[in-house]
Amino acid sequence: MTADHSAPGRLPEPPTRPTLTREYLAAAALALIDTHGLRKFSMRKLGTAVGFDPMAAYRYYTDQEALFDGVAEALFTEIDVDTLPWGGPWQQLARDYCLRLRDTLLRHPRAVQIFATRPVRSPASIDTGVKMLTKLRDAGIPPAQALRLFRCLREFTIGHALAIAMTTLGADQRSRKPEPGSPDYNLLAEAADATIPGDHFEAGLTAILHGFEPRLLNT
């Protein structure tokens, strides 16, 4: 599997053969969402953007939700799971996966909602899940407990990325945090000024991983 490092918002190169592919359409949809946002996206606009019949995408995806499944799969592909440290400790594997997932989603802030609202069921995703559970089983963590761990990590990472993406897209402009020196400036505002968005991610990640260490599972 090879990661796609093209700039977000740039349409991928068209397929060399004179027909579309599911993968190309998903990548093109992601590029349009990166540029124009989810609310302005439509299947018709996708067909027009790639230079085919506006309804051509329906020959590859039954509806827009199915296409968004393909977009989520394209985002997962960008993580490049094959190059994760599979030979190292499971904690490092889990940490690196979460960091890559976060960074991938934040390269596509307008598409985080798509990834957050559907499971990724591609063969690559399923294979990765099996490999991760096998890694933890070999480290003494039963598969069911390992699955709980990765669900916690996934939800934490996606939720974090969604919150940061919303800030990136302008949610911080609606903040009513009082300015220093104003009568309403309090300890919460002071603490907020001492932090930056996202600087708590690795601390939270460490706490989750520590809580699932094998020596703590039976306590």
UniProtKB/TrEMBL annotation:
Keyword check for Transcription regulation: yes
InterPro entries recorded: Homeodomain-like_sf, HTH_TetR, Repressor_TetR_C, Tet_transcr_reg_TetR-rel_C_sf
UniProt keyword annotations, A-Z: DNA-binding, Transcription, Transcription regulation
SUPFAM superfamilies named in the record: Homeodomain-like, Tetracyclin repressor-like, C-terminal domain
DNA-binding region, residue intervals: 42-61
Domain HTH tetR-type, residue spans: 19-79
Name used for this protein in its record: TetR/AcrR family transcriptional regulator
Native species: Nonomuraea helvata
